[in-house]
Amino acid sequence: MRNITQLNHVCFAFADETFASDMSQMHSTQPEVLILNLHTKDYLFPDWMKKMSLLKVLIITNYAFHPSELNNFELLDSLHNLKRIRLERIFVPSFRTLKNLRKLSLYMCTTTMAFGKGSVLISDTFPNLEELNIDYCKDLVVLPTSICDITPLKKLSVTNCHKLSSLPQDIGKLENLERLTLSSCTDLEVIPNSIGKLSNLTILEISNCISLSSLPEEFGNLCNLRNLYMAGCASCELPFSVVNLTNLKVITCDEETAASWEAFQPMLLNMKIEVPHVDVNLNWLH
């Protein structure tokens, strides 16, 4: 590997097409954080990574134009202290069981193999996951239904996935979910009725989900909802049940969406509507 640097408990490494996977100079290292910067279409995890018994965080960023494919991914099963994984511009493989993983972040990744039909149930792969972030994954059309069986999940963020058309009907099974972010999923048309079962949800973001035509009547059952972000949702019809959102403190939205909420303000005395001022910079035209 080229340009291997270790700073305290953090190890940085770079690999490209010209470099083989002989990394003998890293055999003795025991980092807690490993950052791999790739510029290759294929990368093989070396067997010596099994010896990184202290590894807690793995960050892999691919700087090539096309997603990089990871091979020998199953060796991560042996890293029992691994808590966080972040992948950027990666062809995500079918995951194996990572029982101790707490946070997974996928940015500009191809997820077909990991989330598609025939893949391992994500609830079996990450049974103790607490946070899942998926951003700019263009091939994501539906979330795997088994996500709903990851009961420890507290934060779920799916943003800028423009082909995402639906959420699992059983999303209400995520009884510990505290924050749900669905911003800029422009093809998302429906919020499942079961969302009303998310009794611990305090923050919901649906800004710029422009295809949402309405919120379900069960939306009013979100008894602990405190912050709602829904800018760019002027065409989204609100159910009358929102009058039951007595803990709702702040709604951040645009002027058109604010007009829909103003009708409910007399019944939601603690609710504040915030319309951020957006500066439009036209300097680029000159």
Report a brief summary of the structure.
The chain is mainly beta. The protein has helices spanning 112-115, 122-125, 255-262; strands spanning 2-7, 10-16, 33-39, 42-44, 57-62, 68-71, 84-88, 90-91, 103-107, 131-135, 155-159, 179-181, 203-205, 227-229, 250-252, 272-274.
Structure description:
By secondary structure, this protein is mainly beta. It has two domains: 1-128, Leucine-rich repeat, LRR (right-handed beta-alpha superhelix) (Alpha-Beta Horseshoe); 154-286, Ribonuclease Inhibitor (Leucine-rich repeat, LRR (right-handed beta-alpha superhelix)), CATH 3.80.10.10. Helix content is 6%, strand content 24%. It has three helices and 16 strands. The strands form two sheets. It has a 13-stranded mixed β-sheet with strand order 1-2-3-5-7-9-10-11-12-13-14-15-16, covered by helices on one side. The longest helix has 8 residues, at 255-262. It is elongated and about 65 Å long. It starts with a strand and ends in a 12-residue tail after the last strand. The relative contact order is 0.07. This is NB-ARC domain-containing protein. It comes from Trifolium subterraneum. Keywords: Plant defense. Pfam families: LRR_1.
Secondary structure blueprint with pairings:
Elements: E1 2-7, E2 10-16, E3 33-39, E4 42-44, E5 57-62, E6 68-71, E7 84-88, E8 90-91, E9 103-107, H1 112-115, H2 122-125, E10 131-135, E11 155-159, E12 179-181, E13 203-205, E14 227-229, E15 250-252, H3 255-262, E16 272-274
Keywords: Plant defense
Organism: Trifolium subterraneum (Subterranean clover)
Protein name: NB-ARC domain-containing protein
